[in-house]
């Protein structure tokens, strides 16, 4: 009798324990996911607290992203904690790809996202219509609109114009970097304005290319394809009706010049981010390359730390319009349960001159927040010993205010790759500039067909598409 | 009739309830984290969904668009080409290396096992960056050696895109040979020594031993590794992606475009067309199952014929 009783109760206890351990595995997150959007009242309370009662905001928040974002935040953390002493910030950083994958999954799943997350410029179109991100307008972000560079601010607004999901961080005004030592060696000017003048025509560009190149030993560019790609680097591939805009002013001339560079073997015919190209930049065997102004930081810390005095920077050649490459944002997922601290963080880091300039000093991320340029003008006009006394940041500031607004879509990232590979395929096949342009159009349309359908559906959900 | 069957099952469960309680955790977790995602993923492939907005029912739309897309076929061709050609060194190399290590010809077995297995557990991105340098156009080691022999350099990662596959095949084979070798070695060590000795006494050469004794006895193990590397072949993404400079088109003329790259471009990395990506994933699953089925049949048929 006793034995049977114990057996039965053991059975029940066992089943109970098993059930609890199994369910514990899936029920753990219910505490942290409060995915209900904040109300206007709550938002106003948060905004007021952040502005007027900074010392009362407390808690620990997690901020996620990719390097060098962590270096940037660490540099500005002291200033942040002075204003908000009771907020602790944990940095959860990984590589760009993993970070975006994790963020997407967490937003879709409704839990697991950090309180603040970085979003790269290339991917913002995937996030700007997301209802899983807090509408920062409710927190009073509109007051900041005029302080930020227009084209960056527009990228963070949802398709229907109603919500603002992100605050812009930095820009990448396109600069054309060149080796002053090689230019001097072959008798070319090294002053940035003279170089810009000389290379403002394609003939000038080809002249420089010929002078600096030594067949098999020294090259003008990593790839001739970039002469064409820079025209699209602003990622304005589509208009608001999702038509692909392939024609650019002067594109056929650019392609002509690019083909000449390729035929004469003046380019390395490799990707600008490849190991080979990196080795060539520091060795001086790849003489010029163009990138966003964040490339200055790359050169100084990573690519050519010993190269001080050998580099210069000026505008893009070929009379190309001012343009921008990249620039990230910060978002606050609705799941966050400390939106006060999160908004305090975002506002301090990105919308104050001290925050942005501390970060700029550390990692060269050019602020999209215009008051930062005016608050410490020396930072932006000072001559840079690395760049032989030139001031690339001054040029970047000029360019930054001229960049036009663009319309981003989820097809952008895919289209980008084809600018490089379609040119190469066309050049290899001996095509004319018009043929290369048509090839590019066909390739992009074929590759982005399905993504375009998805984009249309997203716009339809937002009520912007018939 | 069904009620009777259900009653019968319930009775069986009741009789063995302790056993069922013990295995329950696995099944509960499997249903939640394994079965549910599998089924909902399949359901998702009939919709268009960006992960956050509305779900738009398309019926077979995704599958139809998929089979009409020339890039899908190119990706399939590339993946199969790379996979099939790479399997020759993977299988033969793995077997031969395992045989050599198993025999008394070499000392330091464990050292070699570790060295050959390393590619499998090293970061794919790190390895690809090194190989990118190896296959570099101007400064690559391979082109340098070509130059020493007076040959023209080859633009492996560019040109018209046809040589990207060569680089990917080399990387894929290099990675999987070690894995196969370790598994075959374990299998060979399971073959009793008497069989080797009997073969030696009969005067069999090493080649005959490998082909007529070792391989037939290793059939199930070879089948296992074949299925593993087939799955690896369908999952091939990091190597071609990094080699072509993070290019979603797979480089010039799509030379390096693989099925997984085509999938990830749609979601979640290159876009958010989750329904379409799901459809691609299930087509790939179907292909893997077919391949496994065919391999199984081929292996077993030979065994019946051989008859020991």
Quick recap of the structure?
The complex is a heterodimer of chains A (466) and B (308). Helices cover 49% and strands 9% of the residues of chain A. By secondary structure, chain A is of the alpha+beta class.
Q: What do these coordinates show?
A:
The complex is a heterodimer of chains A (466) and B (308). Chain A has 466 residues and is α+β, with helices and mostly antiparallel strands. Chain A has 2 domains: 40-171 and 327-375, D-Maltodextrin-Binding Protein, domain 2 (3-Layer(aba) Sandwich); 174-237 and 244-323 and 383-404, D-Maltodextrin-Binding Protein, domain 2 (3-Layer(aba) Sandwich). Helix content of chain A is 49%, strand content 9%. Chain A has helices at 2-27, 40-52, 69-83, 96-109, 124-127, 150-155, 180-185, 192-198, 202-212, 225-229, 251-263, 275-283, 295-303, 339-351, 353-363, 370-375, 377-381, 392-400, 412-428, 433-461, and strands at residues 59-65, 87-93, 116-119, 166-168, 170-171, 174-179, 288-292, 311-314, 329-331, 366-367. In chain A, helix 3 (69-83) packs antiparallel against helix 15 and helix 14 (339-351) crosses helix 15. With 308 residues, chain B is an all-alpha fold. Chain B folds into 2 domains: 2-44, no CATH class; 64-306, MetI-like (MetI-like fold), CATH 1.10.3720. In chain B, 73% of the residues lie in helices and 1% in strands. Chain B has helices spanning 2-15, 17-44, 61-68, 70-102, 109-121, 124-134, 141-148, 164-189, 193-201, 206-234, 238-243, 259-266, 274-306; strands at 47-48, 56-57. In chain B, strands 1-2 form a two-stranded antiparallel sheet. In chain B, helix 4 (70-102) runs parallel beside helix 8. Chain B is flat, with a radius of gyration of 24 Å. At the A-B interface, helix 1, helix 4, helix 12, helix 19 and helix 20 of A face helix 2 and helix 6 of B.
